[in-house]
# Entry
Amino acid sequence: MRTTLRVTSIVSLTLITAATATSLAQRSGSAGNPADATTRIVAAAEKVLSTLDAAGKAKVQFPFDGPQKSRWSNLPTGIFERQGLRLGDLTPAQRTAVNELLSTALSRDGYRKINEIMQGDEVLRTRGGGRGGGGGRGGGGVVFGETEYYLAFVGTPSATAPWMLQFGGHHLAINLTMAGSQSTMAPSLPATQPATFTVEGRTVRPLGNENDKAFALINALNDEQRKQAILAYTVSDLVLGATQDGKTIQPEGIVVSALSAAQQTMLLDIVREWAGIMTDAFAEPRMAEIRTNLPQTYFAWSGPTTNGSAAYFRIQGPTLVIEYAPQGGVDHIHTIYRDPTNDYGVKFTRK
# Structure
C-alpha cells in the first residue's frame, strides 16, 4: 500500500532542512581514518553535552555496563518507555547539536535513512497512528511522530575508552559502540511504516533500496540456485529482533560461494545498505570483514519473488545476520542488523 498523504508539517519538524542535511551528510560521507572518525564523533558528542544543563546531562548519560545498553525497541512510545534526551524536549540549539552529531557518526546515506524513517513516523502521527491507533503525549495511548526519538550516551564519550551512541524511537534503534579506532553498529534496527509516502510531492521509501536490491538478487538466480535459496516454510517476522540478544539460528538457504561473481557483488551491495549506515571510516573495514567471510555466508528467502510482494530474506555469515521482514504486507517493514560475535562491541570492550 502506498501512502499518498501530503506531509506539510514535516518541513518544520524534520531534524534539519534539506540543504543543511546535505552539507552535514557530505562531511560524514568520505572515508577516513577510523581513529580520526572517533575523535570527530566524540567532539560532536561533547558539543551536545555543552548545550545541556545538569538535568539534561543526567538524562543523556548512562553507565557503560548498565542496563541501558540493551534497552532498545522497534515499539512506539506508550508501549515501550525509552530513556535519554527526547528530541521534542530540546531547544533549537540543542537539536542542531544532536543533528551534527548524527551526521558525523553516520554516512550520508545512513543519515538520510534515519531522517526518512522518522518522517514516516510523522506520517503515522498525522493520519492518526495508522493501524496502531492514535493517542498523544499526555493523553494516553500510543504516541507517534518525529519528536519521539531519544539520544543516550552509554558510557562517557571518549576517543580511547569504550562508549555507545544510542539513538532511536519507533521503528529505529541505532547502537553505535566505539573504542578508539574500533566500532560496530550491531545490533541496530532500521524499520519503517509506511514503507512508501510522499513529502512535498517527493516519493520517499526509507528502505526502498534494501527491498529492490534483494528482489533483483533473487531474480538473478537460476532455477537450481533458487531451489537452494527459497525456504520451504514461511517466515513472517524477525527471528533475532529486539529482546533476542544472545540467541542464534542455523544458517539456511544458498551458500554465497555457490553464487557467481556478479551475484556476490549484488549481495554485498545489499549488505552495505545496513553496514554502510555508519560513517565510511567504520563501514569500509566492516565490509572488508564481511567479504572475507563470504564463503561461509548464506542467503535465504521466504515468500514471492515478484517485486512489490511481501517477502522475507536473511543474509547470515560468521559475523553477520541481516533480516528483512514485512509485517502483514509491504507497507510495514522490520529489519535487524547483528554481529553474533560482536553485538555491543563485546570483542573490543571485553575487560
Confidence is low (pLDDT under 50) at residues 1-30, 130-136. The CA atoms of residues 218 and 305 lie 7 Å apart. The longest strand covers residues 172-179.
